[in-house]
Amino acid sequence: MAADKLRDLSQPIDVAVLDATVAAFFVTGSKEERAAADQILRDLQANPDMWLQVVHILQNTKSMDTKFFALQVLEGVIKYRWNALPVEQRDGMKNYISEVIVQLSSNESSFRSERLYVNKLNVILVQIVKHDWPAKWTSFIPDLVAAAKTSETICENCMIILKLLSEEVFDFSRGEMTQQKIKELKQSLNSEFKLIHELCLYVLSASQRQDLIRSTLSALHAYLSWIPLGYIFESPLLETLLKFFPVPAYRNLTLQCLTEVAALNFGDFYNVQYVKMYTIFIGQLQTILPPSTNIPEAYSSGSDEEQAFIQNLALFFTSFFKFHIRVLESAPDIVALLLAGLEYLIKISYVDDTEVFKVCLDYWNTLVLELFDAHHNSDNPAASVNLMRLRMPEVLQRRQLYSNPMSKLRGLMINRMAKPEEVLIVEDENGNIIRETMKDNDVLVQYKIMRETLIYLSHLDHDDTEKQMLRKLTKQLSGEEWAWNNLNTLCWAIGSISGSMSEDQENRFLVMVIRDLLNLCEITKGKDNKAVIASNIMYVVGQYPRFLRVHWKFLKTVVNKLFEFMHETHPGVQDMACDTFLKIVQKCKRKFVIVQVGESEPFVSELLSGLAATVQDLEPHQIHSFYESVGSMIHAESDPQKRDEYLQRLMALPNQKWAEIIGQARHSVEFLKDPGVIRTVLNILQTNTSAATSLGTDFLSQISLIFLDMLNVYRMYSELVSTSITDGGPYASKTSFVKLLRSVKRETLKLIETFLDKAEDQPHIGKQFVSPMMEYVLADYARNVPDARESEVLSLFATIINKYKTTMLDDVPNIFEAVFQCTLEMITKNFEDYPEHRLKFFSLLRAIATFCFPALIKLSSQQLKLVMDSIIWAFRHTERNIAETGLNLLLEMLKNFQKSAFCNQFFRSYFIQIEQEIFAVLTDTFHKPGFKLHVLVLQHLFCLVESGALTEPLWDTATVPYPYPNNAAFVREYTIKLLSSSFPNMTAAEVTQFVNGLYESRNDPSEFKKNIRDFLVQSKEFSAQDNKDLYAEEAAAQREQERQRMLSIPGLVAPNEIQDEMVDS
Q: Which single residue of 155, 287, 814, 907 has CA 20 to 30 Å from 844?
C-alpha cells in the first residue's frame, strides 16, 4: 500500500499520499480504508520526528484537513517537548508560523477564506508564546503591535491573538502551567499593557472598519478585569466605550466591556468616574430602550442579538449595583437614575428565560439580605445602643429609599415563585394537569433562594406583603386574573413565608386566605381546575401548623376537606391529600383526641366510625400513610384504655381479613400459596407497620395478637422460597412468585424491627419477642440457601441489640452461630455480591461490639481473627457506607479491648496489621470520605503506645534480636520504615519529621489531622484532585453555623422542619 511508505521519515514526506490518506480517514474511505488510514496517522503522530515535516507539509498541501493534522502534530510537540528542542529549531518554527499568519492575514480575501486555518495558527503561536515569552522572546508584544499597524486585517488578527493570550494566562492556566510561570506571564502582560492599550484606543478612534472594531472590543473585554485601573479611568477608554454603546453593531460587545468595568471593586478611589459612567449609560439606555418598553414581550419576539442585549444588560446592572450601589445612593441628584436602573432590572426579571432570571434573582437575594441585616440589627436589642443610634437614621433612610422597588420586587417574587417540593400536581407541556413524576433539582434550588428572598422582603414590610397577596387572591376569586399558574405561584408564595409574621398577623391573614381558597374551590367548575385549587389548599394549610393548632374550626374544616380530596381520582390529588394529612396530624395531634367545644366526642372517634368510607378510594400505599397518621393521633391520647379501644377500632378491618386468611390456612395450607392471598397478607403487614411507626409501645396489644401466626406464615414462605431456589436454580429468585413471598418475609421482619425500635426500652418486651424468633427467624436464616437469606434479619438483630443492650448478652453466641460464618462466606468472595447483607452485617457486628463486648472476648482466637479480618475487609471497601461502618466498628473494638484484661494479647496480634491497613486506605485516594475516621484510628493507636497501657512488647522478641526501649520507639521505627518503602519519592528526613509530628500532636486532634493532610499532599497522593473530603468536618461545622443563623430569623426555617414539642394541649 502506497500509504505505508509515509512511515519512513528519513526523507521529505510525500504530501500527495498524505492528502489521500487523510481524505480516506475523514471523507472518502470505506470502513477498512478508514481503519488503515487511522492506524497510519496514529503512527505518524506518535513518531517523535514527525514534527520536522510540518513546514514541508504546510507549504505543499492544499487540503485543509491535512493542514490541521500537521498542526495537531506540532501542537503536541509544543505542549510537551518544546523546551527540549534545539534553539535554532525552535526559532525556525516560531518565525515560520509568524510569517504564515502575517501572510494570510495581510490579504483580505485569504484572511476571510482561510479563517479556520488562521485561527488554528493563532492558537499554535500562543502556545509557543506561553513557553518563550518573556525570557526568550522579549520583543513579542512590540513586534505584534508593530505588525498590527501595517494593515487593518493584520490588526484584526493581532487583536484575536491578544485575546487568546489573555484567556490562556488568566482563565485557563490552572493545571496547565506552574504557579511561578503564571505569575511571570501576568507580570509581563501588566508591564507591557501600555502598548496594547495605545493600540486599542488608536483603533477605536481612527478605524471605520466594523470587523476590526468588533475584534478590538472583544480583545479589550478579555483584559479589562485585570489591567491596572489607571488604563481605564485615567485615559479616554471609558468615554470611548460609552460612545460605541449606542451603535447597534457594537452594542453587545461594548456592554460586556462596561460590565467588566462595573464588576471591578477597589475601594472608593474612582467613585466619581463610576457615577459619571452610570449617568451617561442610563441616559443612552433610555434612548435605546425607552422605560415604557414591555421588556418581557420585546425579549420573546426579539432576535438573538436583541435577546443577548437584555442578558448583557442584566449582567451589567447586577454587577454595577453589587459593588457600587452605595455610591449612587449618596449622590442626591443620582438617586432618580439609580431607581430607574432598578426599575429596568425588575422588568428584565420578568423575562421568560431561566438563565436571565437566575442572574437577577442572585442579585435581588444579595440586596434584600443587605437591607434586612441592617433592619434586623436595628431591631436587635443586643446590638450596641450607641452604634445603632448613630446608624438608625441611615438605616431608615435606606429603607425609605428602596421601599418602592422592594414593593415591586415582592410582586415579582409572588408572580414567579418556583414550585416547592411538597407540590405533586403540575401542568405538562400540553397544558394537562398531571402528577409529577420526577423532581426538578434546579427548580428546588430556585425555590429555596426565592423563599429566602421573600422572607427577608416580608420582614422589611409585613403589611405590603400581606396586601399584595390578598389583592392577587381577590383577583383570582373575581376571575380577573384566574389562571392555574397565577394561583399556583401566589399560593406557593403564601406558603413560603410561613413563620415570618407575628402570630396575630398570621392568624388574621390566614383566616382570609383559607376562606377565599375554600370559596374558590366551591365556585370553580372543571376537574382540572378543582385539582389545581385542591393542590394549593393542601400546600398552604400544610405550611401553617401554628395557625391550625389555635383554630379548631379551621383545622376540622381543612381535615374534612382533605378527606374529600381522598375520593378525588385526579392524578396526584390523593397522594398530596394523604401527605398533607400526615404532616398536619404530626403537628396538631393533641387536638384530635380531646373533646372540642361544641362536639360530643373527640375527632379521632368520629374519624374511626367512618374509616371504611374515608379510605375506600385510596391505593394501598395511600392507606398505609393514612394509618400512620391516625396512629399518630391515637398515640397522643393519654388514657391507656381509650388508646387500646381506638387501636382496636383502627385495626378492625385488617384484623378481620387476617383472621379469615389464618382460618382458611388451618383447613388447607395450600390456600396461603395463592398469589392474591400473598398480596393481601403483604398489604395487611404493611398496614400494621405504618401504624407501629407512629404508635411505638402502644402497638403492643396489636402485634401480640398476630405475632405467632405471622412467624408461622414467615417460616412457611421461607421454606417455599428455599425449595423454589434449590429446585429452580439462581434464576428462580427473579420470578414474580418468589419475589412476592420474599416481600412478605421482609415486611414481617420490618414490622417487628419497627415496633421494637419505636417501643420504649422495656426488657420484658424484648424477651417476649426475641425467644420465639431464635427458631423461626435465626435458625431459618442459617438453614436457607444464600439467595434466600433476608438481609433484614441482620438489621433486625442489630436493632434489638442496640435497643436492649446488655440484656441480650446471653443470646449473642446463638446469633453468632446462626449468622456469622454463613454471611461472611456470602460477602467475602468479592466486593459486589449481596450489597444489602454487607452493610447490615457490619451494623450488627458494631452493635455487638458496643453493647455486648464480653461476648466477643469469649470467642476463640480463630473466631476473633475472622471478626478482625472482616472489619479490615469492610474498611477497604470502596462503598462509603460499608467502609464507614467498618471504621466505626474498629474504633469500638480498639476502645473496648484497651479497657479489657486482654489488652496486651489483642494488640500484640493486631496493632501492626491495623496500622498498616489504615495507612494503606488513607493514602490510596479511593477512600477519601473515610479521612476523619482514619485519623481517629491512627490517633488512638499513637496515644495507646505512649499511654503505658501496653505492658508487653508489640514486636516478636523471638525474631527481632534488637530490644527496643519501649513500644513507642518500636512503632516509630516501624512507621518510618513502612512509609519510606511505600513513598520512595519522599526523603527519609521528610518521613521522620512527619512521624515525629504525629507523636508530638497525638493529644491535639486538629494539629494531628493537619499533619496528616500535609503528608498526603507532600506524598503527592492527593495533589491536583478534589480534596473536599479531607475538609468534610470543617464544612459540616460551617453548615451548622449557617443553620443557627437561619433559626434566628423567623420563617427562614419552615415551621414543618422545626422539631418543636407540640404546644397544642
A: 907
pLDDT digits (tens, 9 = 90+) for 424-454: 666 666 666 666 666 677 888 899 999 999 9
- Return d(Cα 79, Cα 2) in angstroms, integer: 31
Inter-CA distances, 303 with 299, 308, 357, Å: 8, 9, 19
**Long-range pairs, 859-862, Cβ under 8 A, ≥24:** 859/816, 861/909
Structure confidence at residue 9 as a pLDDT band (50, 70, 90): confident
Q: What is the predicted pLDDT for the residue at 869? A: 85
Place of cell 390578598: 470
For residue 887, give the C-alpha cell. Answer: 471504621
Direct distance between the N- and C-terminal alpha carbons of the chain, in angstroms, rounded to an integer: 94
- As a whole number of angstroms, the distance between CA 654 and CA 660 comes to 10
Phi and psi of 130, rounded to 5°?
-60, -30
Q: Are 945 and 938 in contact (CB under 8 A)?
A: no
The torsion angles phi and psi of 177, rounded to 5 degrees, stand at -135, 160
Helix (H) / strand (E) containing 427: strand 425-427
Partnered with residue 433 across adjacent β-strands are 427
Sign of the torsion angle spanned by Cα atoms 711, 714, 720, 721: negative
Helices and strands (H, E) in the chain, number of each type: 50, 2
Which residues are registered as beta bridge partners of 426? 434
Q: Which residues of 527-566 are buried (b: 16+ CB within 10 A; e: fewer)?
A: eebbbbbbbbbbbbbbbbbbbbbebbebbbebbebbbebb
Strand-pairing partners, residue 435, are 425
Question: Rounded to 5 degrees, what are φ and ψ at 174?
Answer: -65, 125
CA 813 from centre of chain: 43
d(CA 725, CA 363): 62
pLDDT value of residue 3: 66
Q: What is the DSSP string of 398-420?
A: HHHHTHHHHHHHHHHHHHHPPPP
- Count Cβ atoms below 10 Å from residue 948 Cβ, excluding itself: 10
- Secondary structure of residue 347 in the 3-state scheme: helix
Provide the mean pLDDT of the chain: 85
d(CA 762, CA 327): 68
Integer Cα distance of 1005 and 936 in angstroms: 8
Using CA atoms, how far apart are residues 466 and 814, in angstroms rounded to an integer? 65
Percent composition of the chain: helix, strand, coil (DSSP 3-state, to 5): 80, 0, 20
Query: CB–CB of 1060/466 below 8 Å?
Result: no
d(CA 163, CA 156): 11
CA distance 622 to 1040: 35
